[in-house]
């Protein structure tokens, strides 16, 4: 078979420095996302002393705080964690859109991978489903995506 040069990320987090940025808003959900991300990264070799958790008020603040962390050069990657629930807010769309757009901008401008662990759901049930029950754990997914992206970028 023809050999195709393939670049893909290995999933060891050993030696990396990672920041988790997590909102307090809807913390009953977000705490489960943090737990999932910490568990995933620990099981992939990240030492506890190389993990920093930054708690912030809400999803709207995620981009600014991630920007500061991305700019200071101390972290190889960031996992952004939060939950915006439509039923809980009339300004769902503003908070969710600005957070998502801002995080994408920060990641592109800084070159630091940001795992997008922001739940945007219609109701609390959908959030619970994605925070460690029947639809998995979005914190795990975001940590995994960040780790794989860090390891791919190292090879490009
Ligand atoms: N922040 C969230 O993280 N999730 C929400 O569902 C939410 N609601 O419902 O409004 C929310 N609002 C707060 C917002 O992120 C800011 O912290 C606040 O507006 C102060 O800037």
Explain this structure to me?
- There is one protein chain.
- The protein has 156 residues and is α/β, with parallel strands linked by helices.
- 44% of the residues lie in helices and 22% in strands.
- The chain contains five helices and six strands; from the N terminus they run βαβαβαβαββα.
- The strands form two sheets. It has a four-stranded parallel beta sheet, with helices on both faces. The chain has a two-stranded antiparallel sheet with strand order 5-6.
- Strand 1, helix 1 and strand 2 form a beta-alpha-beta unit.
- Helix 1 crosses helix 5 and helix 2 runs parallel beside helix 3.
- The radius of gyration is 16 Å and the shape is globular.
- The two termini are 25 Å apart.
- 44% of the residues are buried.
- The model has no long low-confidence stretch (mean pLDDT 96).
- The site of 5-nitro-6-ribityl-amino-2,4(1H,3H)-pyrimidinedione has 16 residues, from strand 3.
Which geometry do the CA atoms define? Answer: globular
Specify the structural class: alpha/beta
Q: Count the beta strands.
A: 6
What is the ordering of alpha helices and beta strands? Answer: EHEHEHEHEEH
- Bin the strand percentage: 15-25%
Oligomer: single chain
Low-confidence sequence ranges: none
Query: What gyration radius follows from the Cα positions, in whole Å?
Result: 16 Å
Percentage of residues in helical conformation:
40-55%
Strand order of the largest sheet: 2-1-3-4
Q: What small ligands are held by the chains?
A: 5-nitro-6-ribityl-amino-2,4(1H,3H)-pyrimidinedione
Taking the alpha carbons of the first and last residues, their distance comes to 25 Å
User: What is the tally of helical segments?
Assistant: 5
**Major sheet, described briefly?**
4 strands, parallel
| Average pLDDT number | 96
């Amino acid at each position: 078979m023809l050999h195709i040069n393939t670049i893909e990320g290995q999933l060891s987090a050993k030696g990396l420095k990672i920041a988790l940025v997590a909102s307090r808003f809807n913390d009953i959900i977000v705490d489960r996302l943090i737990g999932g991300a910490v568990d995933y990264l620990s099981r992939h070799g990240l030492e506890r002393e190389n993990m920093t958790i930054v708690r912030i008020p809400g999803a709207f603040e995620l981009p600014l705080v991630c920007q500061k962390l991305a700019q200071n050069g101390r972290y190889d990657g960031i996992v952004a964690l939060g939950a915006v629930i439509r039923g809980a807010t009339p300004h769902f769309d503003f908070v969710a859109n600005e957070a998502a757009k801002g995080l994408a901008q920060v990641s592109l401008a800084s070159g630091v991978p940001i795992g997008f662990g922001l739940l945007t759901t219609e109701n609390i049930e959908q959030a619970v489903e994605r925070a460690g029950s029947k639809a998995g754990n979005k914190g795990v997914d975001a940590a995994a995506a960040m780790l794989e992206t860090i390891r791919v970028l190292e090879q490009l």
